[in-house]
Amino acid sequence: MKFKTLLKRLMLGTVTVAAGISLVGCGSSTSTQSSESSSESSQSTTKTTAASKARDQANNQIMSGQYKEALKTLLAVKNPDSQTRSMIKDLQKYLAAQDAYNDQEYDEAVNDLSSVSSNSKPMRSAFISMKNKAKQAQQAASASSSAQSSQANSNSSSSSSAVNSAAASQTGMDVINAFAAKMNFNQSSYGIIPEGKDGDVYTFEVRQNNDDNTVAHLIGIYQYNAATGAVTKIN
Fold first, then answer.
1. If we measure between CA atoms, which residue out of 114, 107, 90, 109 comes closest to residue 98?
2. In 3D, which of 142, 133, 76 has the Cα closest to residue 110?
């Protein structure tokens, strides 16, 4: 009887020790997991803090017009978060637009500033300002081009009028009448306009009015040799 009681006590002691060891093991595992989680959280916080500080510094540089310096600040962040990467992208687009503007490539500058990726207010303000500046330059360039084209057309018209005037002054009515008679252009509906003179060879533009004299249709361009009476239609 005493032997059985002693055996039960020994078995109960063994179970108690085993349970204690198990609890110690669980406590150690829990402690290790907690430590790892704390380490990861600390690293994430450090990463976020570094990126956030860099963005704050970059925003101040942007407000001061130091765009290249702002880009350098953000590129120095070892593990940039999504907002930092978005600001880097925006700054690269802004600097490309700035270069295009300086090269008078205003269309390209406007396209580079089509959208903003980050939440940076200074960056958005810079985009809007540069885009408006590029659009104004774009409109000014277009207006200047139109004015130059109009002036060129005016000069061309003036030059043509001067040539016609000179040709008319060098062409006597006897030459015009002789040409009209030869070509049967002596009716009142025909208009003979001197275009040029080279020696005895005269160039005439011939037009004919419609019945109500509202439209003068081109009949042709002719060269008339007053010495020989020869006529050649050149158009």
1. 109
2. 133
